[in-house]
């Protein structure tokens, strides 16, 4: 089982849409796939038409009163399950802080499902926190969507420095471009420079497109309603590139 975290310090960069669409691509390829919606806003849960609520909330989960496998919900798609969000996830930092070895708690809870799934996608809230460190500990790959703008690049530099400063050298960070506007010269120039500066940068880029924005109306992964679109093709190429760098 490989754990892939969709993570960014900055919000509004296409993190959730990427988590949903990459997971859908994995499931369509026949991999047993799970999405864990860790964001209290519950956007991934919403896209899969599943109520963002878990019995007992984050308190029971962190106390060990509920196992993760009790919280799993099936989606409308083969090979694709979801652990929905809960608004109480906003308190996960506080609950983790009360635990011994707090950064290992997510990994500990995911471990029993190692034989049940090939890929687990973590849709993470946008911040740097104790929960973030627990995500870094649990994840085999850290997939970070980057808009080709100065501020978004600044968050990539901050994340890279955080990983270095906290001795997370084993963390496999793979940034990728998101919400790319091919009409903008600035986007093109920044992408060219970043690809030169960050060897781990994935080459497949997700466009800024209206069909992706429609996910909120359709409440399903992009390829489920617009499978032949350029955007769906971009997510497919991104998944193929990630898979090529991943050893199961």
| E-strand count | 8
What percent of the residues sit in helical stretches (DSSP H or I)?
25-40%
Overall pLDDT confidence: 92
Let me know the largest β-sheet.
8 strands, mixed
Strand order of the largest sheet: 3-4-2-5-1-6-7-8
Span between termini? 7 Å
Radius of gyration: 17 Å
| Percentage of residues in DSSP E strands | 15-25%
**What's the shape?**
globular
Number of helices: 11
Reading the helices and strands in chain order gives EHEHHEEHHEHEHEHEHHH
Low-pLDDT segments: none
Q: From the helix content, strand content and strand pairing, which structural class follows?
A: alpha/beta
What does this structure look like?
The protein is an alpha/beta fold. It is built from 11 helices and 8 strands. The chain has an 8-stranded mixed sheet with strand order 3-4-2-5-1-6-7-8, with helices on both faces. Strand 6, helix 7 and strand 7 form a beta-alpha-beta unit. The N and C termini lie close together (7 Å). The model has no long low-confidence stretch (mean pLDDT 92).
Task: Explain the layout of strands and helices.
Elements: E1 2-6, H1 15-28, E2 33-37, H2 43-47, H3 57-63, E3 73-74, E4 80-83, H4 92-97, H5 105-110, E5 119-123, H6 130-138, E6 141-146, H7 150-165, E7 173-180, H8 185-197, E8 205-207, H9 210-213, H10 215-218, H11 230-244
Parallel strand pairs: 1-5, 1-6, 2-4, 2-5, 6-7, 7-8
Antiparallel strand pairs: 3-4
Helix pairs in contact: 1-11
